[in-house]
Amino acid sequence: MDFQQAKELDSNYIIHSYGRFPLLLTKGKGAQVQDDTGKTYIDFTSGIGVNALGFCDDGWVQAVGAQLASLQHTSNLYYTEPCIQTAKLLCEKSGMKKVFFGNSGAEANEGVIKAARKYSFEKYGEGRNTILALKNSFHGRTMAALSATGQDAYHNYFFPFVEGFAFAKANDLEDTLAKMTPDVCALMLETIQGEGGVVPLDKEYVQAVAKACQEKDILLIVDEVQTGMGRTGTLFSYQQFDIQPDLVSCAKGLGGGLPIGAVLFGEKTETVFGAGDHGSTFGGNPVVCAGAVHILQTMDDAFLQSVAEKGAYLKEKIANMPHVQNVTGLGMMLGILLDTEAKPVIHTLLEKGLLVLSAKEKIRLLPPLTITKEEMDQGLAILEETLNAL
User: Where are the alpha helices (DSSP H) in 125-247?
Assistant: First the structure.
């Protein structure tokens, strides 16, 4: 199938809810991917942060393939070893206590919302159920996750929303503390607002709201769907803010290309769900979890240090390029603000062989964490050449 055939069939049979680029991808390895003509591209997107180890990592493929050949699925009525191993590694590496598995980041965020409300209901009774989220946040496309998203652009057409959500200004301590009213059971935040434009929260702000949450017994929820799994140079980004959340949602890089979501529970919340309180048919799927075990085992201290170093290298190189006003983010989650519109630049980069993303008015980079220096330099050369030509 060539691109024109693919485009026509896509138009005929797939809902047009994505603004697709004119590109038919066929195979990839590491940080490189080919289209139907055999042209090779450097990938600075990793499937929007999913392919943490790049395309078709040998160890991941072997782990997934071996599990697929022995047991592809069973229900959560039974135990499976990959599910248990993944949960154990997540808890050991995060300092959290228990895990619930689902299929996506949005589903994980549904889980943290339910857990927060049940915790508060059991301890304080009815009426203390508001989730305080931050303006400019993004937590997913399902109705509750969308209700927790602090961007009006995502809300149009879908009214009415799920009740029980309020919003505070990110990095505004006074406003956030004022919104911690007696009806609030949890504060939900991203340490870096990814879809909001790769906007990091200030460490002092995060620590101050975490302290206030502890004092008021308001649960602290950290959405690590995009920032987790080594993306920022630590397994979870909150580990750079010197806080310990009560609930954490993660997904994307945990699956390495297969669908998974997870809720991590801290000491306060580890017993909040009992039998029948929550569930997910495909949650903890053994094939997906077999891949997740390999990913978590790969992300040791040396690996995470390399991510931090690569991110610093990219940030320094890009900051000195023409038309770049600033570079935001941590590790290998970066946002580039140009003095010109980003969208035409993104399309030119595609034509030249570099895949990047957008986040509001910025170019967003989420390269595979395993990308080599040579591949980074190839991508940076394309970016600099394109910016020089503006």
Answer: 143-147, 173-178, 203-216
pLDDT in tens, 111-147: 999 999 999 999 999 999 999 999 999 999 999 999 9
**What CATH number did the domain enclosing 214 receive?**
3.40.640.10
Q: Is 32 helix (H, G, I), strand (E, B) or coil?
A: strand
Amino acid 45 reads T
What whole-number distance in Å separates Cα of residue 164 and Cα of residue 277?
Answer: 19
Residues making up the annotated binding site for pyridoxal 5'-phosphate are 105-106, 138, 223-226, 281
> Please, which pLDDT band fits residue 8 given cuts at 50, 70 and 90?
very high
Question: Domain containing 238: what range?
Answer: 62-298
User: How far is it, in rounded angstroms, from Cα 279 to Cα 281?
Assistant: 7
For residue 105, the model assigns a pLDDT of 98
Q: Which helix (H) or strand (E) holds 334?
A: strand 333-338
Instruction: Give which of 249, 252, 203 is closest to 222, Cα–Cα.
Output: 249
Annotated binding site for N(2)-acetyl-L-ornithine: 141, 280
Residue 316 forms part of a structural domain? no
**368 phi and psi angles, rounded to 5 deg:** -55, 140
Q: Which two tokens stand for residue 183?
A: 């009806």
Q: Which of 277, 169, 293, 191 lies closest to 241, judged by CA? A: 191
Identity of the residue numbered 214: Q
Single pTM value for the model: 0.98
Residue 220 covered by a domain:
yes
- Residue-wise pLDDT tens digits, 171-197: 999 999 999 999 999 999 999 999 999
Task: Please state the residue numbers annotated as binding site.
Answer: 105-106, 138, 141, 223-226, 280-281
CA atoms within 13 A on the CB side of 370: 22
The DSSP line for 40-89 is: EEEESSHHHHT-TT-BT-HHHHHHHHHHHTT-----TTS--HHHHHHHHH
The size of the chain, in residues, is 390
List beta partners, residue 382. none
CB 267 within 8 A of CB 97: yes
CA–CA gap between residue 252 and residue 288 (Å, rounded) = 12
Q: How many separate domains does the chain show?
A: 1
**What is the reported pLDDT for 158?**
95
